[in-house]
Each structure stands twice: as C-alpha cells, then as structure tokens.
Amino acid sequence: MSSTPIFIRGVLGSWRGLLAWAAAIVAVLLLYLPLYPSMQTPELSQMINNLPSELVQALGYEDITSGAGYTQATFFGLIGFILIIIAAISWGSAAIAGNEESGQLELTLAHAVGRVQYALESAAALVVKVLLLGVVAFLGITLLNGPSELGLQADNLLAVILAWTGLGLTAGTVALAAGAVTGKRAWAVGASSSVVVLGYAFDALGEMNPDMEWLQPFSPYHWAFRNAPLAQGVDWGGLTLLWGLSFLLIVVSAWALARRDITG
User: Which residues cross the membrane (predicted)?
Assistant: First the structure.
C-alpha cells in the first residue's frame, strides 16, 4: 500500500478534470494571443486613450499595446484568472467538505488514515494540480510567444506564472480550510468565492479611486499583479503573501479537521 494514498488519489483520481482545465487554458491562449499583432493599430490606441483613465487602470489596459500588457490583460488578469480560480475552488472544496458530504471521508479515515495526514495530502494534491496548470500555461505561452510577436522574457513569464498559480492556490486553500472547519461544500465554495470577489473588487476600487487605495493591501489579486511581474519580473513580497497565506490555510485545514466530529 502506498504511504501517500490520499495524495495519489487526489492527483490521479481527477485526471479528467485536470485535462479539461488544461485544454481550456490552451484554447484561451490560442484564441487570444495570436490576435496581438493585428491589435497594434492607431485605432486601438485611440480607443484606449478615449476611455476614462480610472476604467483603463481597473481593467489593466494601460499597457495593452505591449506584449506583456496584452497577455496580462487578456489572460492572466481576466480569462486565465477565472479559469484557475474556478478549478482551484472546485478541487479545494471537494477535497474535504465534498468527500465528507458523500461519506467518503469517514470511510477513508476508518482505514488507518489520520486526519492530519488526510488534510496535508489533500493539500499537496491541490498544490500539484494548480502547479500543473501553471506548467501548461507557461509552455503554451512560450510556444506562442514568437509567432504572436509578444516579446515576452522567459524569467518574467515564470514570475507571473508563480503569481497566477499562487493566486489560484490561495482561493483553493481558502476552500480547503473552510471545508475542514464546516464540513459543508457550499460554505467552502462561498467562503473562497467571497475572498476572490472582494479581492478583485478591492483592487479595482483602489485603481479607480485614490481615496480607496487603502483597500488594495487586503487584495490577493493585488498581491499577485501589483508590480506587473510579466513586465517587471518577480515581486517577492507579493509571492510571499500569496504562498505564505496558502501554507497557513493548509495548517488551519489540518488543525480544524483533527478537532471536530465528522458528519458524513
């Protein structure tokens, strides 16, 4: 018997879903990135200039005429953000709360698997799946970089991949922790979705209104993209916040699951 049965089941047991999310990421990249050369027109620049500056900043369009700005605005800051968030929340909420509601958790714990072990291996599986999506995005963008004339640097691309996956993992570990605390998948999804929506809103409000900038330090979205890593390189402070919070939430998950009754 494997010494990490929950981890292996968590990764291999969801390979179809992982493949579907990877395919969705590739499809989005193929849809948007090759359009970049045709978007570099005076008309586009004029249209952006005619928009309210607050709206341009909130949407991340202030640098959309560069390859890094375009990739950030269309993928990492929008569609790619949505994809990795939904995937991570789905995996995080299912790992403990979903299995508890189905009765699978109680059955697994009855077969000499400790609660802390279960939580930690579930978290490890979540981390691996999120990172695999990061690998898919990195390879896809790297392959399209030249043909799409994006001019992206490999080290900066790695920096934004780490921020993007860290943002997804933050959402996923919120769902994992909420599920460990409550045992209810609806609560896990609700808690993580609230963190994501509020984080995005806090960042957007701070971009649009200088008086609201005090909200941005509370936004995981802001931590990920505040220093434009695809253009400027690694933001170690932002990565520390994202990955540090994720690690803390994993610890909370193990602690909470070890200290309450299972209701499945």
Answer: 12-35, 75-97, 118-144, 156-179, 186-202, 236-258
